[in-house]
Design brief:
There is one protein chain. By secondary structure, the protein is mainly α. The chain folds into 3 domains: about 100 residues, Fumarase C, Chain B, domain 1; about 230 residues, Fumarase/aspartase (Central domain) (Fumarase C, Chain A, domain 2); about 100 residues, Ribonucleotide Reductase Protein R1, domain 1 (Orthogonal Bundle). The chain has 19 helices and 6 strands. A two-stranded antiparallel ribbon has the order 1-2. About 40% of the residues are buried. It binds arginine. Arginine binds next to helix 6. The site of arginine has 11 residues, from helix 6.
Length: about 450
């Protein structure tokens, strides 16, 4: 069968160019949205008297029929259809003849594809929001059980101060909430309807854009028809929000990988989520977080690709836009799979090694700040206290002892205001408990955070 537009042409397309040009290989997944958009469109055409009510209902029924056939797998477009929009139109004309040819009245594929992709993305954003919530919940469960589990906190990947493990995990719940909020915000701009902008300039037919927009549950319509068919900002925004999700997942993945190493040994990977080596029988590898960390790169790549694709385009539609689809589809797939994989890792893939964590927080100088704070509480200026503690640490390192191993007489030599209660102060648990400032890691503060998330996450 010739192309929809073939009357204007004398010769057929070169077969390779036909393939090169076609998007049907990937935009087939917009079928449901394409049909929904068309149904809303023909209803509006009927209401406006642009086609008769009977024609509108015949078109609607046939579009519904295509939906069923698609579900059964009997609707199979091929490469000659070029894209999903032509595929549906061809099928419709095959089914009902001349009335099918009225489908495309008062619109263009340019506003149509913009509508389809927005409808599709709107659904996926809602799904990703659910995925993020599951991820948050998986962290919350472990946090709740580990308020009093201490873990070294790092800066520069050097032991800094001990913290509650719950506090550490809650930081990622916060990040994920920002991710959810960002998506919610992007969704507002995805949820504007371009349909009726037609090719670029609107149409001379008496369409009513508000009817189709309302029918498709769009919040609003684009005010300017050129902007409507040329806007792909929402694609950039979506991939940007997705890139941050992947960044957060990559960071937590990196931590899992470190924690699972022999050097840290803070977690053990369960058999559910770890993999073996083909040659080294002793190994248990953190492939899942490694994959997630690795996959972040492709999403960042899509962001760069889309920005570059858009930046030189004159108004209005350009075929370059066809490139947005694979980037969006792959981003959605990557983000959803990564969120699911990491959630499963937290749900059943990790065992925190309590004994290792306990010995990690009591075998270093991460309580040094607390000696300084102790002196500050006794009226010593912080910088002076800091310098003194620096000296004490240096001394202890030379002697190969920890702060808690310094005898009281020596403490007194360092400063006469130091008393017996310094030893209490040095206990990791007290170190953590004392960080009572808002947002600090003190157990009481951590419990407050947990309460906030309990309300939001536990239903
Ligand atoms: N497959 C095209 C795309 O994805 C649909 C719009 C084509 N419009 C056009 N004027 N050629 O962007």
């Amino acid at each position: 069968m010739g192309k929809t537009w073939s009357d204007r042409f004398d010769k057929g397309l070169h077969p390779f160019i036909e393939q090169f040009n076609a998007s049907i290989g990937f935009d087939i997944c917009l079928l449901e949205e394409d049909l929904d958009g068309s149904i809303a469109h023909v209803r509006m055409l009927g209401i406006q008297g642009i086609i008769s009510e009977e024609e509108a209902s015949q078109l609607e029924k046939s579009l519904e029929q295509i939906k069923l056939e698609a579900l059964e797998g009997s609707f199979r477009p091929d490469i000659s259809d070029e894209d999903i929009h032509f595929a549906v139109e061809r099928k419709l004309i095959e089914m009902i003849g001349p009335v099918g040819k009225k489908l495309h009245t008062g619109r263009s594929r340019n506003d149509q594809v913009g509508t389809d992709i927005r409808l599709w993305l709107r659904k996926r954003i809602d799904e990703i929001d659910q995925d993020l919530e599951r991820f948050q919940r998986s962290l919350f469960v472990i946090a709740e059980q580990n308020i009093y589990t201490l873990i070294p906190g790092y800066t520069h990947l050097q032991r800094a101060q001990p913290i509650s493990l719950a506090h550490h995990l809650l930081a990622y719940i916060e990040m994920s909430q920002r991710d959810r909020n960002r998506l919610k915000d992007v969704r507002k701009r995805v949820n504007i309807c371009p349909l009726g902008a037609a090719a670029l300039a609107g149409t001379s037919l008496p369409i009513n854009r508000k009817i189709t927009a309302a029918n498709l549950n769009f919040e609003d319509i684009y005010l300017n028809s050129l902007d409507a068919v040329s806007d792909r900002d929402f694609v950039v925004e979506f991939i940007c929000a997705s890139s941050l999700i992947m960044t957060h997942l990559s960071r937590i993945s990196e931590e899992i990988i470190l924690w699972a190493s022999e050097e840290f040994a803070f977690v053990e990977l369960t058999d559910r989520c770890a993999t073996g080596s083909s040659i080294m029988p002793q190994k248990k590898n953190p492939d899942v977080p490694e994959l997630v960390r690795g996959k972040s790169g492709r999403v960042f790549g899509h962001l760069q690709a889309i920005l570059t694709m858009i930046k030189g385009l004159p108004l209005a539609y350009n075929k370059d836009f066809q490139e947005d689809k694979e980037a969006i589809f792959d981003t959605v797939k990557t983000v959803r799979n990564s969120l699911l994989a990491i959630s499963i890792v937290f749900e059943e893939g990790l065992i925190f090694r309590q004994e290792r964590l306990a010995s990690a927080v009591s075998s270093d100088f991460s309580n040094a700040t607390d000696v300084a704070d102790y002196l500050v509480a006794k009226g010593i200026p912080f910088r002076e206290a800091y310098q003194l503690v620096g000296k004490i640490v240096k001394n202890s390192l030379e002697e190969g002892i920890l702060l808690r191993e310094i005898p009281l007489t020596r403490w007194k030599n360092f400063h006469e205001l130091i008393e017996e209660d310094i030893y209490e102060k040095l206990l990791p648990r007290n170190v953590v408990a004392s960080r009572m400032s808002e947002g600090g890691t003190a157990f009481e503060r951590v419990k407050e955070q947990l309460l906030v998330w309990q309300k939001k996450l536990v239903k």
